């Protein structure tokens, strides 16, 4: 009997219509856990580095995590993996909701799509019944609309449906995959899904998932439950409200957005409005949010309520969460939050990433104001800020006029437009739009997370470490007093010594050696979460979370029957991380690519940045170009990876 996992992949050849249920090797779980870990392995084995995003050989893999469908609170993340049309690397956006649990209850750990369908289709899974169905009648329908139409068509109101909208059909590089109250948004998974002519995946499952040692598992979960209750009753002091508890940032619950609106950048990631949050704005935005949010909602088996059902005036109802409520308004310089609720609904139906897409629209506006784009490019565009953004969104999603150029994202659009447009591409890393953060002095931790992570998304810059030094010794002592999640007690002293100003302040503190250890820890937790299917708001993205490196091994062991300790779990996370790194090295990623935008910080320190990269690379066991050495790869049982890198000339023979 298989424990925690279903033990089967569902393989779909879209070109032939062949459907195959494939039993998996139990050793895969022991080496890579599940979720992202085993998906990376599948891509390494199946998709050569020469394959591009829209080639038939590109695989699109929907994966559950190892703890999905178990009683583990908040283990509800699906991971979607593919070669991205934007970055050209192996991407893995995550989505919450109920899809992963439903897929595992149907008896599958992954759905693997290969090749392309000649016609529009959707995949229907109902336990052992699996069909490729015609979706020609769904072409042109919205992502949310498609989900409802399929449920009615199947007469399965509880079916979980992941679908694309018009953006995915038109292969917009920021197209998302929408599902329930969540989406897999970053790096163009919706475009790859549309390229393969998959309109949706509908799944219903009613099978059981087994735990190896259920009593032991539930005893561990009791500790998690007790901690969640404790954190609710004792929010972390002296940090912003949305980070003081647990779960993803509680932006649908809290209305105070002073920190985000005054510290994040407006427009095309250019301007900080330091005096924006007035009493009048506080009152109007709070009123707008309270009117729009009809109820707070959760994902599968989650005790928190990070999302919301939005019903704004005559706008159709939809689900929303997190920073999306701010991205369009801030990018458009619109001070009325009502605008956010309206345009976010249309964007959700179109199926676009609400982090990248507003930046692309703001980029177009800035080019127009600079005279690089002309009245001809904007013919028929309304002159008001709100109307202009709606008009641009429609053009991008439909790939009409200038929207066809913008639909490839800022990096490619800037180079196609030319005439100085390249200078306005100042918020991309590895060809992908970043969160619009423009800060003062270089932050060494954020530099490493931003520059080196394979995730290339908002959560790559966040972890369990405080966002900045606490102003007083008393606040620091209070913070470290209750901090069992850290991997080593020395981390407490680093926080105690961390100052806002002076020798032990950024950019030179934490030191490069300290930064390497801190970032490695935060990155490790993200990798574990993404392998087991855990919401990072309950672990890697959250200050003082209920899941951490000390209780994860016990939960995974009880669920699977493995006898896994902390060192063993760290080794698996390291194996997955290095395999992913090597895959992207094969796709061309090198040290030269790991540079945040020039104006990301007002004060840059080039020599320190190079020292940070070199120190971090050495700590990871990588060479000076950011490629894992043979010694590191063999240590992790990845000798076959070293052989491949040497064969391709990426890693020199014996280089350590």
What is the name of the CATH class of the largest domain?
A: Mainly Alpha
What is the domain total for the residues?
A: 3
Provide the structure class.
Answer: alpha+beta
Q: Return the CATH architecture of the largest domain.
A: Orthogonal Bundle
- Residue stretches low in confidence (pLDDT < 50, at least 5 long) are none
**Number of helices, counting only DSSP H or I runs of 4 residues or more:** 24
> The biggest beta sheet, please?
7 strands, mixed
Distance between the termini: 42 Å
The dominant shape is globular
What is the CA-atom radius of gyration, in angstroms? 23 Å
Strand proportion:
5-15%
**What is the assembly state of the chains in this entry?**
single chain
Helix content: 25-40%
Give the mean pLDDT. Answer: 95
Counted beta strands: 20
Pfam families: AFOR_C, AFOR_N
InterPro entries: Ald_Fedxn_OxRdtase_dom2, Ald_Fedxn_OxRdtase_dom3, Ald_Fedxn_OxRdtase_N, Ald_Fedxn_OxRdtase_N_sf, OxRdtase_Ald_Fedxn_C, Tungsten_al_ferr_oxy-like_C, W-dependent_AOR
Keywords: 4Fe-4S, Iron, Iron-sulfur, Metal-binding, Oxidoreductase
Organism: Citrifermentans bemidjiense (strain ATCC BAA-1014 / DSM 16622 / JCM 12645 / Bem) (Geobacter bemidjiensis)
Structural commentary:
The chain is α+β, with helices and mostly antiparallel strands. The chain has 3 domains: 8-204, Aldehyde Ferredoxin Oxidoreductase,  A, domain 1; 235-433, Aldehyde Ferredoxin Oxidoreductase Protein, subunit A, domain 2 (Orthogonal Bundle); 439-648, Aldehyde Ferredoxin Oxidoreductase Protein, subunit A, domain 3 (Orthogonal Bundle). 40% of the residues lie in helices and 13% in strands. Strands 1, 2, 3, 4, 5, 6 and 7 form a 7-stranded mixed beta sheet that branches. It has a 6-stranded mixed beta sheet with strand order 9-8-13-10-11-12, sandwiched between helices. Strands 14-15-16 form a 3-stranded antiparallel beta sheet. The chain is globular and about 65 Å long. It starts with 7 loop residues before the first strand and ends in a 9-residue tail after the last helix.
């Amino acid at each position: 009997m298989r424990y925690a996992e279903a033990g089967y992949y569902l393989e779909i050849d879209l070109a032939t219509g062949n459907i195959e249920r494939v039993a998996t090797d139990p050793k895969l779980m022991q080496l890579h856990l599940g979720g992202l870990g085993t998906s990376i392995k599948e891509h390494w084995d199946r998709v050569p580095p020469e394959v591009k995003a829209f080639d038939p050989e590109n695989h699109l893999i929907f994966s559950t995590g190892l703890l999905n469908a178990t009683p583990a609170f908040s283990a509800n993340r699906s991971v979607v993996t593919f070669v991205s049309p934007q970055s050209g690397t192996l991407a893995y956006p995550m989505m919450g909701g109920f899809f992963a649990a439903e897929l595992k209850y149907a008896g599958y750990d992954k759905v693997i799509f290969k090749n392309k369908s000649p016609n529009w289709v959707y995949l229907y899974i109902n336990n052992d019944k699996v069909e490729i169905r015609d979706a020609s009648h769904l072409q042109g329908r919205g992502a949310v609309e498609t989900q409802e139409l399929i449920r009615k068509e199947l007469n399965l109101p509880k079916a979980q449906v992941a679908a694309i909208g018009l953006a995915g059909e038109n292969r917009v590089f920021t197209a998302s995959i929408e599902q329930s109250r969540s989406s897999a948004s970053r790096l163009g998974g919706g475009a790859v899904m549309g390229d393969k002519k998959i309109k949706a995946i509908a799944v219903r499952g009613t099978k059981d998932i087994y735990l190896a040692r259920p009593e032991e598992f539930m005893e561990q979960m009791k500790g998690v439950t007790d901690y969640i209750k404790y954190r609710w009753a004792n929010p972390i002091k002296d940090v912003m409200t949305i980070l003081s508890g647990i779960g993803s940032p509680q932006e649908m619950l809290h209305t105070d957005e002073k920190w985000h609106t005054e510290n994040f950048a407006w427009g095309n990631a250019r301007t900080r409005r330091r005096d924006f949050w007035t009493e009048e704005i506080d009152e109007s935005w709070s009123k707008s949010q309270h009117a729009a949010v009809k109820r707070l909602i959760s994902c599968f088996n989650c005790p928190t309520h990070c999302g919301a059902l939005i019903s704004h005036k005559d706008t159709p109802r939809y689900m929303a969460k997190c920073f999306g409520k701010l991205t369009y308004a801030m990018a458009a310089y619109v001070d009325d939050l009502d605008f956010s609720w309206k345009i976010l609904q249309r964007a959700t139906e179109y199926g676009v990433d609400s982090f990248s897409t507003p930046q692309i629209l703001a980029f177009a506006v800035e080019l127009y104001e600079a005279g690089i784009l002309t009245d001809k490019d904007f013919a028929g565009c309304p002159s008001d800020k709100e109307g202009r953004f709606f008009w641009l969104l429609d053009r991008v999603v439909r790939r009409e006029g200038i929207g066809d150029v913008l639909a490839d994202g800022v990096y490619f659009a800037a180079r196609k437009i030319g005439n100085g447009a390249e200078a306005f591409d100042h918020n991309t890393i590895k060809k992908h739009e970043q969160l619009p953060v423009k800060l003062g002095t270089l932050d060494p931790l954020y530099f490493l997370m931003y520059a080196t992570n394979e995730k290339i998304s908002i959560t790559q810059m966040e972890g369990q470490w405080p966002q900045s030094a606490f102003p007083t010794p008393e606040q620091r002592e209070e913070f470290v007093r209750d901090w069992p999640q850290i991997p080593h007690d020395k981390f407490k002293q680093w926080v105690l010594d961390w100052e806002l100003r002076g020798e032990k302040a950024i950019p030179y503190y934490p030191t490069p050696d300290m930064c390497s250890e801190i970032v490695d820890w935060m990155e490790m937790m993200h990798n574990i979460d993404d392998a087991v299917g855990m919401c990072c708001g309950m672990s890697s993205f959250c200050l003082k979370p209920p899941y951490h490196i000390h209780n994860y091994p016990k939960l995974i062991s009880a669920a699977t029957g493995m006898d896994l300790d902390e060192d063993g779990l760290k080794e698996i996370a390291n194996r997955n991380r290095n395999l992913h790194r090597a895959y992207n090295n094969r796709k061309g990623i090198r040290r030269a690519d790991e540079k945040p935008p020039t104006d990301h910080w007002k004060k840059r320190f080039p020599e320190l940045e190079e020292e940070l990269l070199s120190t971090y690379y050495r700590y990871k066991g990588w060479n000076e170009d950011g490629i894992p050495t043979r010694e590191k790869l063999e240590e992790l049982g990845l000798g076959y990876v070293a052989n491949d890198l040497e064969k391709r000339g990426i890693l020199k023979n014996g280089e350590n």
